[in-house]
Amino acid sequence: IRLYSTNENEVTLLFYDMTGRIIDEIKSTTVNGEYELIWKPKDSVQDGVYLIRGIVGHTVFSQLIFIEKNP
To answer: 38: closest CA among 11, 2, 9, 71?
Structure first.
């Protein structure tokens, strides 16, 4: 997951399944410029659609992702 920040910010990424349950969370700090976080789903995460809710400083964003472990 790539982020861009103009200064140092706290980052929280929340990963939800389609029932609205939080299945994982990443907390980090960005620096000025482009920043990349890599999420490795737990073994219990099954194939399907998931929602990422990201909070970077005062900015909030959402993104849908599709997980397919065994193509």
So the answer is: 2
Query: pTM of the prediction?
Result: 0.83
What does the H/E/C string look like for the chain? CEEEECCCEEEEEEEECCCCCEEEEEEEEECCEEEECCCCCCCCCCCEEEEEEEEECCEEEEEEEEECCCC
- Residue 5: the pLDDT is 78
What pLDDT, in 10s, does the model give residues 32-64?
778 788 888 888 889 999 999 999 888 899 999
Q: Which residues contact 59 (CB under 8 A, 6 or more apart)?
A: none
AA letter at 54: G
Q: Which two tokens stand for residue 9?
A: 């910010």
